[in-house]
Amino acid sequence: MRLERLNLEFFGHFSDKQFDFGSRKATGHDFHVIFGPNEAGKTTVMEAYLRLLYGFPSKDSYGFQHQRKNLRISGTLEVDGQHRDFTRLPTQKNALLDQNSNVVSESALQSHLGGLSMVDYRKLLCIDDESIELGGEEIVNSKGDIGALLFSAAAGIGDLSGVLNSIENQADQLYRRRATNSRLAVLKKKHADIEKQIRELDVPASGYRKLNQAYAQALAVEQTLGSERNALIRQQLTLRALIDARPLLMEIEELESRIKPFDAYPRDLAITSEEIEALLTKQSKASSDVERLENELASLQNEQKSEPYNADHLILVDGLEAIETLKSLAWVAGQNQDKQRRACDDLLADMLRAARDLNIDTEVDVSTLVLSSSTLQALEQAREVARTSAHNVSNEQHEVDTLREAVDLMTAENARLESELPIDGSLE
Q: Would you list the DSSP string of 65-83?
């Protein structure tokens, strides 16, 4: 596995800082050095690369410029001759993404790290001031192999002996002669069990063909039986629905028979709920009135039956009928009496106004002002004569007009009086 490109998108004091180391084929080199003054960010770049490989810790000291939730590192690695892009996010789950921003498993990187943890990787492959100081302290404090310690110090690896012991333990766990619990021994036993199962399950080619044919036939039978089962289920559901619906159908038939006499009735009534309520109120009142009148009628019939029969009372029938007729006429006249009185008062007032216009004493009996037909005809003839001679006598024009107006007024008043005054000519 080889690093070709490292991009510190948001990490430490860097924002979109990119380091392009080129491919192995393009450069022909496989060793690269990042150098710079103190506090330039060399350690930050190394820490960013470690986080790309192993992920972010729960608390990160490099989130001082960018919030931890916004930290982001990406890079391109050459893995088994293929170029793969990865992006690391500071989340606990789904933290590793591929070039299409799809989540990938951590094994995509861990399978190429040889089982090294982040601590071992840092001690073996990361050289900084801290690791050099730890190597010197190990030379001073160690009691083991001085050559290994010197090599450890020269390489800047502070805990080489610990790493070697750890590797030896891992090797013993992987394989140890005549050991039955090593990983290789367990895998060999598992492999033997699997081969035994394969031999037990293995069948010859002819047997496989027969089994395959039987399997195909079983599938065909299963499909046929499945179709038949589905048809039976649908039939069962239909019958169950009919059984459940039968009581409802019987109830519908009963209701239809009950409403059969009302087929001629309209389906919808063009009436509002308020009108229905008013009709119900009116019906209730009418029912009460009918009941009351029926009671009164029954009471009167009882009284009539209790009265002794007298044949002399029959002669009063015609008179009673006449009285009933007169009673009706009197009731109608009483209803119109006020109206007739008001009309008479209006006529009298009009006649008094006409009398004042004619300079007639208002105390005079207005009935004497009613002219006969002959008088009215003479006045009409005089008006015609005055009309024909009016253009010759300018001084008489005003009198003729006045006379014409008086004649018209008296004619109208006379017609009204004749139609409204009583026959005897008296005024109330």
A: SS-GGG-EEEEEEEETTEE
Tokens, residue 384 = 């015609």
Run of H or E residues at 201: helix 183-201
Crossing angle (nearest 10°) for helices 129-141 and 160-174:
80
Query: What is the model's pTM?
Result: 0.36
The full DSSP string for 257-304 is: HHHGGGTTS-SS-S--HHHHHHHHHHHHHHHHHHHHHHHHHHHHHHHH
Number of Cβ within a 10 Å radius of residue 7: 20
> Which residue matches tokens 């995509």?
108
- What integer pLDDT is reported at residue 419 of this predicted model? 62
| Residue 265: half-sphere exposure toward Cβ, Cα within 13 Å | 7
What is the Cα–Cα distance from 96 to 51, expressed in whole angstroms?
11
CA pair distance 423, 428, nearest whole angstrom: 13
What is residue 235's predicted lDDT score, i.e. its pLDDT?
94
How many C-alpha atoms does 100 have within 13 Å on its Cβ side?
2
pLDDT, average across residues 141-161: 54
β-sheet bridge partners, residue 19: 6
